[in-house]
TrEMBL record:
Sequence ranges assigned to domain Diphosphomevalonate decarboxylase-like N-terminal in this UniProt record: 6-152
Domain of life: Bacteria
GO cellular component, one term: cytosol
Enzyme class of the recorded protein, top EC level: lyase
Protein name: diphosphomevalonate decarboxylase
Pfam families: MDD_C, MVD-like_N
Similarity remark: Belongs to the diphosphomevalonate decarboxylase family.
The protein's Enzyme Commission number: 4.1.1.33
Keywords of this entry: ATP-binding, Lipid biosynthesis, Lipid metabolism, Lyase, Nucleotide-binding
GO biological process: isopentenyl diphosphate biosynthetic process, mevalonate pathway
Record domain Mvd1 C-terminal: where: 176-295
GO molecular function: ATP binding; diphosphomevalonate decarboxylase activity
Amino acid sequence: MARAIAHPNIALIKYWGKADPLINLPAVPSISLTLSELETSTSVTIDPQLNQDVFILNGKETINPKVELMMNAVRKIAKKEVFASIKSSNNFPTSAGYASSASGMAAIALASNQAYELGLDHDGLARLARLGSGSATRSIDGGLVSWPTGTDVSSFGRAILPPEEVPLAVFSVTTTAANKKISSTDAMQIVSSTSPYYPTWVQNSTDDYFKALELIKKSKWEDLLALAQNNALKMHAVNLAARPEIIYWQPESLAIMQQVQKIQTEKQIPVYFSLDAGPNVKLLTLQKWVKEVATEFATWDLQLSLPGKGAQIIDQN
Ligand code: PMV
């Protein structure tokens, strides 16, 4: 048995589009920040009595094809045909744009590596996590993490800057805990095959990735957050233009985005927004502005996260 914890991450430059859907190779490189407060805790217990894996998410037995895909990969590496009981719980709402699959799959990769004695190193773990959910490859590490495009061997999350050197803060604003309607995998498939803006997105977001790396190197944090906001809007623009059209926003999402814009222009507080494949908004700011941002958005349900650590094993026997 082994237990691991992992944190979700918010992409500042988004992963949106697959070069190879079977093994989650991205069409675009991405950059994320691992979030401290949100956490998934997962145990993997090998049980020779089982004739299939059992996955329990937040106390409820659940069928999850991503988990199965990963566990099959684990057994292939281990060369062992034994099944496991996997128990996972999140301290935040599942499937509401909080990237619970990122922390979930990263925690399963770590716990399985230990329980099945796979002996994987960092890169092997990041590649295994990627198979479950692309963005999970970026939750193996803490702080700022890049995920370049490439092959099965070369495309995985890599630490850029450790959490203690990243002066950023993120507020998760809960607008609705409702399940998202279109999974990111389905949306990426629809978008890449129907959105007229998709080729432009791939080109432009790749440019954003290299710009962001440069801004991080120069510690130009506010410029980085402004770029992140623009990158998120471009991701949603490709969705809006797809057939069928994909709209992840709820009225509250737009209200928050407009409130952010108003504060940017009228109060000069460095606050920016980002949204993933769901209605919830993340407010991006600098740690030294956390108090002001919290005051401005006091009417919303806010959860503050600082740069978080990478996934780690917390228990084994
Ligand atoms: O890892 P997935 O398949 O859940 O896709 C995540 C996609 C976004 O969260 C919208 C963007 C990202 O880079 O995390």
